[in-house]
Amino acid sequence: MAVRQDTGRSSSQIKAITGADCSPITIRRHLQRKGFKNKKRLQRPRLLQRHKIARLDFAREHQTWDIQKWRGAIMIWGAFSFNGTMELQVVQGRQTAGPSCVFP
């Protein structure tokens, strides 16, 4: 099995495929010595084809909007941190970028 070509396998899977008589930790240690990095895959929701189509439809529908049409849009603010999430808030009024929000 060519491990470099199949980077999505866990050490337990490699052990099962190769029939190696060692622990998954030994396999990980050996792979680290060979220059492989141990990274977990990011867990995120799958972006389905229907989601991609909906995004594209939205972009096409709104690409010609001018400032006047966007003024009627509602802004909702949400945040998350190490300590958890906050409730969604509807932003009232007009938002402007102050000096602290502008990056050089």
Automatic annotation (TrEMBL):
Matching entries from InterPro entries are given as: Transposase_Tc1-like
One GO biological process from the UniProt record?
DNA transposition
Top-level taxon: Eukaryota
Enumerate the Pfam families for this protein: HTH_Tnp_Tc3_2
Which residue numbers delimit the Transposase Tc1-like domain?
3-63
Which GO molecular function entries does the Swiss-Prot or TrEMBL record give? DNA binding
Would you tell me the protein name for this molecule? Transposase Tc1-like domain-containing protein
Where does this protein come from, organism-wise?
Pleuronectes platessa
